[in-house]
Write a structure and sequence with these properties.
Layout: H1 2-8, E1 11-13, H2 17-20, E2 32-38, E3 46-52, H3 62-70, H4 86-104, H5 115-127, H6 134-153, H7 158-165, H8 184-205, H9 208-211, H10 218-229, H11 231-240, H12 246-255
Antiparallel strand pairs: 1-2, 2-3
């Protein structure tokens, strides 16, 4: 990376901590990482590099894990000894095959898939949550769990549970899905207002304007779409949208 920058002016951005960092059992999280390459003064100045490194994550074939148990330095044994035993050679071969297979397994590829599409899918899947957003992601997830706990414990909000996770509100002929009496209406209104605020907070914290297509945030985007289908949620948004930022309103209308 240093030489590419110094000699060619080419910037390579990659995060390999998921490979290098190991848990208490000595296992890495991944076998691969994706790098973004930026070439200077080129018409097509961006490229993607898939970096695959021999690492043990714990999901390898049992014979590979057994070899590692007997040889703690595997798969980073010294190459000073060039005379590999049969079991050593096979363990490296099997691990390499497993690492490559694991890297490509999550994406949808056929012989006709263009190479550009293959690397775009690899990039989207393996980049995961940007490192600067991991703590914010966890905070928003905790806030969401608190909202779920509130709806679970309050019977006056159970009509929302049906709207978000079932079709019970559609059973009654002519029902709009918006309660006409308290306490359900008032509680439902303020609860949905909290959800919209959580949605805006998540939009800002996770930088969803730029990251909405990142698979790592796909769960949030699907959750937002589920909320938006709720009649009570749509009613509340219509009544309160002026209290949210114009940027968020635009995102809501375009992306959700």
């Amino acid at each position: 990376i240093r030489k590419a920058r110094a000699d060619l002016g080419t910037e390579i951005s990659i995060r390999v901590s998921n490979i290098e960092e190991r848990n208490a059992d000595g296992f890495s999280q991944r076998h691969c990482a994706v790098a973004d390459i930026h070439y200077p003064d080129a018409k097509n100045n961006k490229a993607t590099l898939l970096y695959i490194k021999l690492s043990v994550t714990g999901d390898e074939p049992i014979d590979v894990l057994h070899y590692r148990k007997l040889n703690a330095q595997f798969p980073h044994q010294s190459t000073a000894d060039q005379f590999f035993s049969e079991s050593q050679f096979e363990s490296y071969r099997a691990l390499g095959f497993h690492a490559a297979e694991t890297a490509f397994q999550p994406i949808d590829v056929t012989w006709a898939t263009p190479i550009g599409s293959i690397f775009e899918q690899l990039s989207n899947f393996w980049k995961g949550i940007p490192p600067n957003l991991e703590d914010k992601f966890n905070r928003q997830a905790e806030a969401f769990m608190r909202q779920l706990e509130e709806i679970r414990n309050d019977k006056d909000l159970w009509f929302l549970n049906e709207q978000f996770f079932g079709t019970g509100w559609m059973v009654k002929s002519g029902s709009t899905g918006v309660p006409t009496a308290d306490p359900e209406y008032t509680k439902g209104f303020y609860y949905c207002h909290q959800l919209i605020q959580l949605m805006e907070n998540t939009y800002v914290e996770l930088e969803l304007e730029a990251n909405h297509a990142n698979p790592a945030f796909g769960g949030w985007m699907e959750q937002f779409k589920t909320w938006k289908k709720s009649p009570m949620f749509r009613h509340t948004y219509g009544e309160t949208k002026s209290t949210f930022s114009k940027l968020f309103q635009s995102f809501y209308e375009r992306r959700i």
